[in-house]
Design goal:
By secondary structure, the chain is mostly helical. It has eight helices and two strands; from the N terminus they run ααααββαααα.
Amino acid sequence: MNGSAYLAERLQWWNVNVFGNVHLKKKSLQHRINTFDRKLERSPTDYLFHIREELQGQMNDVLLQEEMLWYQKSRSQWLQFGDKNASFFHISTLTWRRKNRIERLRDDENNWIDDQEILKEMDVQFYKKLYSEESNVMDHVNWPNRFSHLNMNGEQALIKPVEAEEIKRAIFYMGAYKSLGPEGWSPIFFSPSGTQLANWCCAGNNSFHEEEVGQERLDGDQNRLGEGV
């Protein structure tokens, strides 16, 4: 066994027995998170919320590992094939597009139609018919029996001011190489200044929250004054 083959074998052993399979970790964590979500729906407690938050933190780490894994794989393909094999990637993309393209449909008489103009007309007629027919939506739905209710702690958690640490944690959990945002920057650009950005966002949000609460109090005072008059 040469050196490269031995190294590959040892790395495979390390990946399975030490680092662990990222995809299996993700599947296991998702199952546990779903289990705790069901428990929280039945009986929400601080203990369950704490465990659920820890599991979500582990899931975020695994998702980051998975993202880096795919990123490294794509880079390794680029190193292996190089720019000279651009046609290979073009063909792969075209093959994927062809698999996701509708080539033909059956008409009302169960005949296959592949003429593009007829297919366009069939699509138009299908959606015209779909959105012109009367809806069969139920007139009455007993919503309270179909959804869980938030307790007092849950309601307070939704309306409390956002903390800087919460914003900072959200910034750091963002995938570094996700798609560009509307401003043209990827999340990795914001990571070094995450603390400063979190403080800035928190200050602006809390200021808005205080103004909103103040306006509600002012409206309430005006209403009470009007009732007194």
